[in-house]
Amino acid sequence: MKILEVKDYNHMPPINRYAITWEINTLCNYDCDYCDLYGKEVSHNTDKVVEFINYVGTLKNVKLTLFGGEPSLHPLILTVLSNLKVKVEMYTNLSKSLSFYDKVIKIKPDIELETSFHPSREKFDTFYDKVKYLSNKVSKLEIVYMLDTNYLTYKQDYLKIKELCSDSVSSIIAKVEHSDQKQLSEEDEAWYLEEQSGEDINIAYEDNGETKTKETISNYLFANSLNHFKYFMCGCGVHNIFIAHDGLVYPCLDYRRRSVDPYFGIHEDDFKKEFKRISTKGIVCKMNSCSSELGVPKKRVLNV
Ligand code: SF4
Ligand code: SF4
């Protein structure tokens, strides 16, 4: 299968939408073995970043993802949430007590949560009780189960999580990337690939000389090694940006991860002028593999 285009994504309303991901800190209390995002940094001068995000919110239909590390550990997280005037989604490992999440929902009643379960760091039953409680409280809840082959209950755990799914609750199972991982049995591998289905993105691909399309999820591309978009024209900038903990703005997380070409710095530059410059044209991807914003529209421009 040769990917020609990631056409669109439907996790946000289609009109004038704009996704911003803010790595509000890299600090996390879990330090998972497979994590390359974990660090000790915490965003300072959050007021300026909030000002920038609210400014973009006056121009576009913004959805902000608070990302980490573990965003709930930022000392000013509740103040930041109070001051944001855009739609917010927050990633969290759910390690805080439920009373913390109750406070978050009180401040932002329409907040969406993307929760992740890490078997080496948390007991499944504790995590499950929390997602069960939150499944009736938040407008949208996504539950990501990290499949670590050192913890063999993944199938039964994930099936239990799937029972919570509804119009407002969804789930994903994703393999962790670490050298100590064992190969899944043939049966479990087939089950895992079968679980990579959904209707978040629309892809066009070439198959035996024919062009076909398919509705799927971002992790389908990753799980099937279809995430190589070097030289594709990507909608980063036009559709989304990534704000790092130090206020530098990148096209996406992969660019931040490899410290390639930030667009500008919120704290140093005229952010209104810079945003206008970057939000009108896409970029030609320089990365060998895309691991984060897979669902952002992108199109093959060279037939390689
Ligand atoms: S919980 Fe998430 S951010 Fe924290 S160390 Fe684990 S993978 Fe990294
Ligand atoms: S790595 Fe970034 S620029 Fe490249 S395709 Fe992925 S999202 Fe787009």
Structure in words:
With 304 residues, the protein is an alpha/beta fold. It has a single domain (17-196, 235-281), classed as TIM Barrel (Alpha-Beta Barrel), CATH 3.20.20. 26% of the residues lie in helices and 26% in strands. The protein has helices spanning 46-59, 77-83, 98-107, 124-135, 154-162, 186-194, 218-223, 253-257, 271-278, and strands spanning 2-9, 17-23, 61-67, 87-92, 112-117, 140-147, 169-175, 201-207, 210-216, 233-234, 240-243, 248-250, 264-265, 283-284, 298-299. The strands form 2 sheets. It has a 9-stranded mixed β-sheet. It has a 6-stranded antiparallel β-sheet with strand order 9-8-1-15-10-14. β8 (201-207) and β9 (210-216) form a beta hairpin. The model has no long low-confidence stretch (mean pLDDT 93). The structure holds iron/sulfur cluster (2 copies). Residues 28, 30-32, 35, 37-38, 68-70, 93, 116, 118 line the site of one iron/sulfur cluster.
